[in-house]
Amino acid sequence: MSELITIKLPNDMHVHFREGNLLDFAVNATAEHFHHAVAMPNLIDPVTTYKKALKYYEQIQTVSNHSHFKPLVTMYLTGDIKEIDISQGSSDSRIIGVKLYPAGVTTNSSNGVSNIQDCYKIFEWMEKYDLPLLVHGEVNNPETDIFDREKLFIDELMLITQNFPELRVIFEHISTKDAVDFVKDSADLVAATITPQHMVLNRNDLLSGGLKPHHYCLPVVKREIHRKAIAEAAFSGNRKFFLGTDSAPHYKNQKQSSCGCAGIFSASTALVIYLDAFDKAGALEKFEDFCVNNSSHFYKLAKTDKQITFKKEIFEVQSSYAVGDQEIIPFMANQKISWSIAKEL
To answer: CA nearest 105: which of 142, 74, 133, 75?
Structure first.
């Protein structure tokens, strides 16, 4: 008899829907199998105000083909954000938080923060109105080794959590054992998202035997000791760690170029990749906590009664997706996974 696992529809607490021609494709790749998804605000014209966040929300809703899907949007932190934006955002269930990008650390982050302490007044407002802070945690000093940028950012993050103890803080797409330990040791209002790539890849998978452009993301994948610590945090059931794919589509020619873009498109494959990892670790009983319960608890989100069923049978990831006359290469293209999505109930 085939092995089946049924859980409530998961939440993806970190995803990039992009804009323009990519928006419809990216939204529906996630919406098909997720209940909530948190859309990042680093567009070409970043989502820096409450009004812009609502406009982006409406764009996402307009293209979504799935009535069960409940998107959530974020505002992009700049020194110009106003208290009224924080106040209005906190009272609107469509707005989930404010995203901090140190300037220049990733795609469309040039408008990000150069000196985090300049934003302390904004953090006071966020703490006052209970609007979470989502953090891309890497220092932006170009002289700092790229493999050390997350670890060194923890000192900055520690200052934020110490100075604003009632502020909910999410350390996004953690990639180091140092980040895992920091989150574990911090107060209950500090949490982290974990991507499929940081759970299953180490830097050999990126660099050994030739550069793999479709394994390149930021933060870059690290040594095996870090991959193992991240996976174990997910498998543990600890409420502070939850699913956030960081699915970030770029066209094939943008990835396979002389200066390839950072970002891995995983929306179509992430759930079975996560599940396969939980299965191999003997942690299937913790899978729904990671996918649904932990993020719902931290973000105070209502769960859906709608379910998704997985079947233990081989699923081969397709080689690419067509978007207009361009291609998107999914994470683990052409590889075989031991689980497939069977149905939704």
So the answer is: 142
The label of the residue with tokens 């802070």 reads: 133
Task: Tell me, yes or no, if 145 is annotated catalytic.
Answer: no
Listed by start position, the domains of the chain span 4-344
Residue 137 has pLDDT above 50, yes or no: yes
Residue-wise pLDDT tens digits, 142-171: 999 999 999 999 999 999 999 999 999 999
Angle between helices 177-185 and 149-163 (to 10 degrees): 10
Catalytic residue among 24, 85, 178, 246: 246
Q: What is the pLDDT of residues 298-331, one digit of tens each?
A: 999 999 999 999 999 999 999 999 999 999 999 9
Detail the DSSP E strand segments found in the chain.
Answer: 4-8, 11-15, 36-39, 70-76, 95-100, 133-135, 169-171, 190-194, 241-243, 307-311, 315-316, 321-323, 326-328, 336-337, 340-344
The CATH architecture of the domain made up of 4-344 is Alpha-Beta Barrel (3.20)
Instruction: Tell me what pLDDT residue 107 has.
Output: 84
Helices and strands in the chain, H and E counts: 13, 15
Q: Please, which residues bridge with residue 171 across strands?
A: 135, 192
| Token reading at 4 | 């089946």
- pLDDT bin (cut points 50, 70, 90) of residue 345 is very low
Of 178, 170, 185, the C-alpha closest to 243 is 170
- Report the C-alpha gap between 287 and 228 in whole angstroms: 17
Per-residue model confidence (pLDDT) at position 1? 41
pTM: 0.97
